[in-house]
Amino acid sequence: MAAATMLYLAKPSCTRKIPFPRVSESGNGTVSVKAQTETKTKAGLLGLGLFHFLNYVEPASCLQLQLHEPPNALSLPTWAVHVSSVAEWIIAMALVWQYGEKSGYPAWKGLSWGMVPLLGGAFCACTWHFFYNSESLEVLVALQAALTVVGNATMCIAAYRIYKSSQGS
């Protein structure tokens, strides 16, 4: 332990071939040996203090912070897929809406409205998973199924409206 705490500040064995400018209080481009030694001493003492502090602090692996998640909890990658899918859907809705405004085909805005029930179903699924698929929230599963059926129907109607509007032009 004593060997680990000893600081060894050896002088470099090779000299610099490229002179680097040094900043000093005097402004002549050199730093005094005393200033270099003081800096090394301060850094060494700081390192020594940190070393001793970390020896007395209990390692994080020994702490008894245990998070008990049920076996049906979603993994981090699965959550990433869920959240990114919802974000993608919202962005798609906004892009479809903008296309409807800029292209002069208002029927495309209807497609954006038709996507809303499916977004609600996605929120139901994420909420149910957030609470570890709780039995008390199983109504969300039925609501998600209903919103999926309604969303598929509204998307179908919106697609038909887009088809009809393109036939008229």
Tags for this model:
mainly alpha, disordered N terminus, 0% strand, 169 residues, 6 helices
Overview of the molecule:
This protein is mainly α and 169 residues long. 64% of the residues lie in helices and 0% in strands. α5 (116-130) runs antiparallel to α6. The longest helix has 30 residues, at 139-168. The relative contact order is 0.08. Residues 1-10 have low confidence and may be disordered.
- State the secondary-structure class: mainly alpha
Instruction: Give the integer mean of the pLDDT values.
Output: 80
Order of helices and strands: HHHHHH
Q: Sheet with the most strands?
A: none
The rounded distance between the terminal residues' Cα atoms is: 86 Å
| Strand elements, count | 0
Shape: elongated
What is the number of helical segments per DSSP (H or I, 4+ residues)? Answer: 6
Helix content: 55-70%
Tell me the radius of gyration.
33 Å
User: pLDDT below 50 for ≥5 consecutive residues: which ranges?
Assistant: 1-10
- The percent range for strand residues is under 5%
